[in-house]
Amino acid sequence: MAWVYLLVAGVLEVVWAFTMKQSNGFTNIKYSAITIVAMIVSFGLLSVAMRTLPLGTAYTIWTGIGAVGAFAVGIAVLGESVTPTRLGAAVLIVSGLVLMKLSAGE
Fold first, then answer.
1. pTM score of the predicted model
2. How far apart are the C-alpha atoms of 20 and 31, rounded to whole Å?
3. Distance between CA atoms of 100 and 83, rounded to whole angstroms?
4. What does the angle CA 80 – CA 64 – CA 94 come to, to the nearest 5 degrees?
5. Separation between Cα atoms, residue 84 and residue 60, nearest integer Å
6. pLDDT tens for residues 58-79?
């Protein structure tokens, strides 16, 4: 169950990163509120996952999901650039996440 909590926490990290961007420096109250709620729930689920998962594994997976997810949302929703270098970096992050999951032994 810890892995499910961690996955949801990572997805919520993507949500709060996107809505923080949309909040325009916390000047848009709707997006600011969504950002804060998503942050609180994301951190809460991360802390629950850390009850059984190692710190290094949980935190690495959480930030990796957030980084790659925000990268994908930036491209798909915000029209950010897609370059071979950026794609290669994302592939390396995902590779690291897979290796971290495999090394967790769970």
1. 0.87
2. 7
3. 26
4. 85
5. 24
6. 999 999 999 999 999 999 999 9
